[in-house]
Amino acid sequence: MMHAKGLLKTFNPGTPIENRVLRGLDLHIETGQFVTVIGSNGAGKSTFLNAISGDLLVDSGSLHLDGQDVTRQNAWQRAGLVARVFQDPMAGTCEALTIEENLALAWQRGERRGLGRAVKAELRELFREKLSILKLGLENRLTDRIGLLSGGQRQAVSLLMASLKPSRMLLLDEHTAALDPKTAAFVLELTDQVVAEGKLTTLMVTHSMRQALDHGDRTVMLHQGRVVLDVSGEERARMDVPDLLAMFERTRGEAITDDALLLG
Ligand SMILES: Nc1ncnc2c1ncn2[C@@H]1O[C@H](COP(=O)(O)OP(=O)(O)OP(=O)(O)O)[C@@H](O)[C@H]1O
Ligand SMILES: [Mg+2]
């Protein structure tokens, strides 16, 4: 489970460019729940994911993963709990390393000791088996540099890397945004599979309302650093894209009015 309570984060405080990005964000996610996250540019979605992964520390509030208080832990300390796939296919993999070296790095995530230079034979077999699930023929290209792969292939490998070791949370930040529609659909299908198999508690940020409703079992909307909409169950099952869009517009309008009132 993931429990975020009253998260606050202000960039450049006390300067003319002060930016209050997280403004009291509360969200509780049960173990195994798959939540899609929508919200306009600058709503604080990536910042929230950075706060969960420990890539940034919040100013105040608390964050629990699986009952553990990780609020003050850095990314390295949380690495065994959180796996992540970014929007940019280049961000999640190391271009200069081979496919198997990248997978070996993911295999070591959250561990103190390295594997040594050689990738052990049994690991290679495991990687081959995992890669074959992708049906991209990558199981025969273990020693190819990952820089040679297309964006979609890299995202597929990134997902595999994120799910290689059991983790508590999977964070997906617009991870199909840079892909063509067909490849995006493939990576999304793979996402559903990986989440279901690993029973992962998942947050998936997307700008596609269609994706937000078609994947996972709950949708939340962030606006100005807070959760302003939270739909699941029957209500969500009955929703279509126009309903969600209407809610998106209405909620944004209301939130802006609320803020204006507070300021006024
Ligand atoms: N490290 C940082 N330093 C200063 N400002 C930052 C930093 N990271 C994010 N911001 C600012 O915080 C705000 C929220 O950014 P964030 O990336 O969380 O938005 P987002 O909801 O992910 O938007 P998008 O849909 O465009 O990805 C933006 O105004 C952004 O410029
Ligand atoms: Mg973002």
Strand-pairing-aware structural class: alpha/beta
CATH homologous superfamily placement: P-loop containing nucleotide triphosphate hydrolases
Number of strands: 10
Named once each, the bound ligands are:
adenosine-5'-triphosphate, magnesium ion
Strand content: 15-25%
The description of the largest β-sheet is: 6 strands, mixed
Multimeric state = single chain
Describe this structure in a few short sentences.
The chain is built from nine helices and ten strands. It is an alpha/beta fold and 264 residues long.
Q: What secondary-structure arrangement, pairings included, does this model have?
A:
Blueprint: E1 2-11, E2 19-29, E3 34-38, H1 45-53, E4 60-65, E5 68-69, H2 75-78, E6 82-85, H3 99-107, H4 121-133, H5 151-163, E7 169-173, H6 181-198, E8 201-205, H7 209-214, E9 218-223, E10 226-232, H8 233-237, H9 241-263
Parallel strand pairs: 3-8, 3-9, 6-7, 7-8
Antiparallel strand pairs: 1-2, 1-4, 4-5, 9-10
The protein binds adenosine-5'-triphosphate and magnesium ion (MG).
The site of magnesium ion (MG) has 3 residues, from α1.
